[in-house]
Amino acid sequence: MKVHLFIPCFVDQLYPDTAFNVVKLLERVGCQVIYNEEQTCCGQPAFNAGFWEESKSVCGKWLADFADATTIVTPSASCAGFIRNYYPKLFDSSSLHHEAQSTPKRIQELSEFLVKTLHTTRFGARLQGKAAYHDSCAGLRECHIKQEPRQLLQQVAGLELLELPDSETCCGFGGTFAVKYPDISVAMGQQKVEQALSLGAEYLISTDLSCLMHMQGYVQKNNLPLKTMHLADVLSSGW
Fold it and tell me: What angle do CA 45, 168, 129 make, to 5 degrees?
């Protein structure tokens, strides 16, 4: 199966190892991974900041970069959710109307692709310890992902999966929200981290590195015994 890989800009710049682990996982289940080196941002940061026209030009480039892709996979529910839900609105009644309307059917977040499309949950992964899973807002509300990451993590040998008390509460990142309202954002991240620690978790796992980056900042600043990991990094552990 040919899979076109979309790696969000911040993953490319800050977490390239996660991107390589996504390739590792997809190839393990027999996918032919295609990566367009010309790809750039999906346009979400500008859109969320209110610069819709500027965002539209970036989104248009993204559509051109993936014009020939039937199946697109990304390790970010945030980017997948934005593309699915807002591209059709941005390009409604425009020259890119049909391309934008078809895109939601072509792009999937990694965990839903593995579970719903490939029907695969076992990768032979091993990670010893206790882990809490963080439901990102985009994963829950824009991609409707809930059980897929948990199904995958339950198959990781040695890993005890714990449920956070307020699993559907935002971590406080929210992109530009963290910049505009830093005190509120940090307090929300602190709450998530403290909940994970109260359960005895050693790992905090999510489908979204943006959330993890936010919470890892609080962890590092306070020298706390917690490690954040993207789902792809967990599933590629031990083999």
Answer: 100
Which residue among 76, 95, 116 closes a domain?
Answer: 116
pLDDT tens readout for residues 38-83: 999 999 999 998 999 999 999 999 999 999 999 999 999 999 999 9
Half-sphere exposure of 48 toward its Cβ, with a 13 Å CA cutoff?
Answer: 18
Token pair in block for residue 198: 């109260």
> Domain boundary at 116, 134, 152, which?
116
Domain that holds residue 112: 2-116
Q: Which two tokens stand for residue 149?
A: 């990451």
Looking at the fold, whether 6 and 95 belong to one and the same domain comes out as: yes
- The Cα 171–Cα 193 span in angstroms is 9
Calpha distance 80→152 (Å, rounded): 19
Q: What is the H or E stretch that residue 40 is in?
A: none
Q: Give the largest CA-CA distance in the chain.
A: 53
pTM exceeds 0.90: yes
